[in-house]
Write a structure and sequence with these properties.
Distance between the termini of chain B: 8 Å
Order of helices and strands of chain B: EHHHHHHHHHHHHHE
Helix content of chain B: over 70%
Oligomer: heterodimer
Shape of chain A: globular
Radius of gyration of chain A: 20 Å
Shape of chain B: globular
Structural class of chain B: mainly alpha
Structural class of chain A: mainly alpha
Low-confidence stretches of chain A: none
Chain lengths: ~325, ~350
């Protein structure tokens, strides 16, 4: 137990937590935007893989880091558009489409990676985003290292949370998005095109997911491995429910999970002798299920989530 | 753009939908093949030869289709009731765990009893893994997709722990694998040559049983009714929760048998590479079969042929084997589209 407290007091633990949280923030916010508009996007796991591969590949082929992130976001938006055409315009099952997109997008990423790098036995590396120390603030004890010596993408992740909140809850666009997920008929009555709003939301959300994936290969690690996303997308879907579709709570939930993962890595080293490492690795998945159970009774789903909208149809 | 239902859907139109989907998937993958620099006819004929070109190839394709028939059936039963079980992968490993637990010396029965015993234990284990997700769905309305997906990761880590720790076979020269299934429990091979085993007979038997159940029994009717319209089913006196739970148990059980058949029929012992994603491919199988249990068999053989053929093709013309996985993903999307187009027409209006 004292080991446990020791871990919590180290600056390294908090720095790791903030680092690990970034892909979860992007993924969770992306899913949140989609679901707020009424579309469940189970393509998230595959779209994160696409982001991880395409962003990394862009830089590996000589591109610049930021344009790499932009490229990953665009690729994510393309798959988001595919998901939107299927679920929003053709009204096909959101569950099955999402799973199909995940299988398609992740296997396509692996295919493209192998095509471009056929003989790479050890994954080649890029120069990833470097930590930037904010003057003065980074000298603060514990918080300094944790919050103010991170890479640029992590700062972006933390900035994006209030931005998404502001857009969703304080702008007309956000209102249209949220209403499309609650009462699309009312949106249509306002003269706003529900299908366009939903398509846009899914594309933007998917771009977020892809940036989350890109963070893994371009900031956290410096190479692309197979199976790298490893269920993080699914954890994000659980986090959205845990967060009751609120950006602020999504940040809180993501921090909780990142903290868990950071503890887990450190506890493996100290308690690894008596507890097999597989049980530590199970923690995030088991916790995601528990989180959904805890929130199940309180959650208020967007009322039109999973409900396709057909113009002119009586409800 | 307006989507409106067709007044009548001919049997021909409905039956051709998966065929169009397969054609579309092959065309989309042809783009990737030509990008890889191979000639498309050569690549596809290599794929076909690799899957059906010799007795050995056919044997291998059928062997590979066995787990896909089981997982395809598991998914098709569940999806019929709109219970989205994406956890067939985990349930397969649960079945394999049960086969290993009971089949490596704990219980010894004559072969005629031992094989059915292992199958039943595997089915129970697969079903047991779905108890939590299905109760969460029926009682707390927690989405089953996420819970079943997350459990896949948990089960896989559990398998990893057991075969590296307490269940590790001391005779395995350090490889993480469990002890071999005892001879009484091993599914016999069907032919003198090749790996094709008795699992195929069980799989075909289950396909027929599930088809009969869905078509001719009250339970099958209830499953279909709940899937069509749960509210209407409730009003007509069907216990929706009970039906969903029953569906989940059947679905998990079928996926569990896949694990038994792979462990006791093909490999002989449990490893972490027992299934290269049979659970996920099962979704494509079920969709191509339009959730019809009998059609699951040809759909499984088709996708298994794609995997076996893609191995041969990639060796010959240097195309990454991931092309097979791409085709599986594309086929799910394509069949969604083609089935919809068989039932609806799209009219373009200004």
């Amino acid at each position: 137990m004292s080991d446990f407290v020791d871990i919590l007091l180290t600056a390294g633990f908090w720095a790791a937590t903030i680092r690990i949280v970034s892909p979860l923030i992007f993924g969770t916010l992306g899913e949140l935007i989609c679901e707020r508009a009424g579309v469940l996007n189970l393509g998230i796991e595959g779209i994160m893989t696409v982001g991880a591969m395409s962003g990394w590949m862009w830089v590996y082929q000589g591109g610049d880091l930021w344009t790499g992130v932009l490229f990953a976001a665009c690729m994510g938006a393309v798959f988001g558009l595919l998901h939107a055409v299927f679920t929003v315009h053709l009204c096909l099952s959101q569950h099955v489409t999402g799973i199909g997109i995940t299988l398609f997008a992740s296997s396509l990423s692996y295919f493209v990676y192998r095509m471009l790098l056929p003989d790479a036995t050890t994954p080649p590396k890029i120069v990833p985003f470097q930590p930037i120390a904010v003057p003065w603030l980074s000298d603060l004890p514990i918080i300094g290292e944790a919050l103010f010596t991170q890479s640029a993408l992590t700062y972006l992740a933390l900035l994006v949370v209030p931005m998404v909140w502001y857009v969703l809850f304080r702008t007309p666009v956000g209102l249209a998005v949220r209403m499309s997920g609650e009462n699309p008929v009312a949106v249509e009555a306002q003269g706003i095109n529900v299908l366009a709003v939903r398509t846009g939301a899914v594309m933007v959300g998917s771009a977020f997911m892809a940036v989350g994936g890109a963070f893994i290969t371009m900031s956290w690690f410096d190479a692309f491995y197979f199976g790298m996303v490893n269920g993080r997308g699914w954890i994000c879907v659980a986090l959205v429910i845990f967060a009751s579709w609120r950006p602020g709570r999504a940040l809180l939930g993501a921090l909780l999970f990142a903290g868990l993962e950071a503890i887990q890595v450190r506890a493996q080293q100290s308690a690894g002798a008596f507890i097999p490492y597989q049980f530590f690795l199970m923690l995030p998945y088991v916790m995601s299920i528990l989180a959904m159970i805890v929130m199940a009774r309180k959650t208020k789903y967007p009322q039109a989530l999973l409900v396709p909208f057909r113009r002119g149809e009586r409800v | 753009m307006v989507i409106e239902p067709r007044e009548t859907v001919s049997v021909w139109r409905a039956g051709m939908a998966p065929v169009w989907a397969i054609l579309a998937s092959l065309i989309i993958c042809a783009v990737l093949i030509s990008w890889a620099g191979a000639s498309i006819p050569t690549a596809y004929s290599l794929l076909f030869k690799g899957a059906f070109g010799s007795a050995f190839a056919i044997n291998e394709t059928l062997t590979r289709s066995i787990p896909l028939i089981f997982t395809g059936l598991a998914v098709s039963v569940a999806f019929r009731a709109k219970f989205y079980n994406i956890g067939a992968e985990g349930q397969l490993y649960a079945g394999a765990l049960a086969a290993t637990f009971f089949g490596t010396g704990l219980v010894t029965l004559p072969p005629a009893l031992m094989v059915p015993f292992l199958v039943i234990m595997g089915a129970l284990a697969g079903g047991a893994l779905l108890i939590v997700p299905v109760l969460l769905k029926t009682h707390l309305k927690v989405d089953e997709v996420v819970t079943t997906l997350l459990l896949n990761f948990v089960v896989l880590l559990m398998v990893g722990y057991l075969i590296e720790g307490p269940w590790k076979d001391p005779a395995s020269l350090g490889w993480p694998q469990a002890a071999s299934i005892i001879d009484e429990g091993v599914l016999p091979t069907l032919l003198a040559k090749g790996r094709l085993h008795f699992g195929l007979i069980i799989a075909l038997f289950m396909a027929v049983i599930i088809w009969l159940m869905m078509r001719f029994t009250v339970q099958g009717y209830e499953i279909r009714a709940v899937g069509h319209n749960a509210k209407a089913a409730e009003f007509s006196g069907i216990n929706v929760n009970r039906t969903v739970i029953m569906t989940a148990m059947i679905s998990g059980g079928l996926a569990g048998i896949a694990g038994v058949s792979e462990t006791a029929g093909l490999k002989g012992y449990l490893t972490l590479d027992l299934s290269p994603g049979f659970g996920y491919t099962g979704i494509a199988v079920a969709m191509l079969a339009q959730l019809n249990p009998l059609a699951v068999v040809p759909a499984a053989i088709f996708l298994s042929a794609v995997y076996v053929g893609a191995d041969a093709m990639s060796r010959a013309v240097n195309i990454p084997t991931y092309i097979a996985d791409v085709l599986v993903g594309v086929s799910i999307l394509a069949v969604l589209c083609s089935v919809m187009l068989s039932q609806y027409r799209i009219r373009w209006r200004a």
